[in-house]
Amino acid sequence: MKYAESDAAINTEFQLRAIDDVLDELFDDELLKRVLVGNLPLYAAEQDKTPFSTHAFIMDFYNQSAARVVGGSDSIATSLKNTILRYGGTVKTQQKVTKIVCDEVKATGVVMNDDCFMAADAVVSAIHPMRTLELLDTKLIRPAFRRRIHAMPQTVGGFSVYLEFKPGVVPYMNHNFYGYAGDTPWNCEHYTEETWPKGYLYMHFCHERAPKFAHTGVILSYMQMEDLQPWWGTKVGRRGDDYEAFKRRKAEQLLDALGKQFPDIRQNLVRYSTATPLTYYDYTGTEGGSMYGIAKDIHLGAAGRVPQRTKVPNLFLTGQNINSHGMLGVLVGSIVTCSEFLTAKTIYDQIIQSNQGE
Fold it and tell me: Which residues lie closer than 8 Å to 135 by C-beta, 6 or more apart?
């Protein structure tokens, strides 16, 4: 593992060339090129837009990392919470930050639930940058920066169907399955009512080490926030019967698509639940219900970069919006932001030492 004291230079060749452009240069076989980008739903790549570097980073990450998180991904949050507590920290739940308070030169703390003030030497925001800016009323953040953040493109939203299987009937699948209605994984974000879903990701969750059968799984497909326009401004659980009917119809369409490859899927189900881009927005604050936050775009250059530092000296950003998409963005973004406090060398030395101790 190598380290640098600052963020890597952004104007490199493969950050300014699209994925399909590089693959066209490297390969002549059209089928091979489509196979190599078959996992586009992992980062919602767009043709002629998403940098090849994004594809390369994420492919390398997934090729080298764990296949699954035993017990579900919430175990990561639980482990982080336990580590914070072990070092004397406090984790507060149901305490929504509604304002970041600043004086003339820096942030002084946050207000939670509109009434409880907590003083802070530094504030780190992991939410979407647009949500962070909504919490700030300070002249330290220039209008030009606000306009730039608001103008950035977002990745497409997602519609998820969470599946509960009958016990002991669905063999556990230790890999992702990508299904496409056409002959290419590209442009699945561009669809009509008649052509949706153009593609999907299907995977099983790992409830124990080396399971023989799957207990739960998920089907995920692209969905634009515009499809949910009739229910904008509503809250979870209060969107009405029409919304529930919409979700059931879309879930059945996805199950129909999956059934072409897995014919027994319906008879093996106990129940399913769903989530739309509105759900993503309500629970995470991601703009437009996007799955992976701000989209990387070769045409934006430096204007497409969200820095971990802000003009408020002790306010920092982190998460998938400042570096890469999804899980990789969260991990790398966290290291980049924490480097502001500890230096990158210290963090990498600790990671290497920890790995050697396993």
Answer: 97, 98, 99, 100, 110, 125
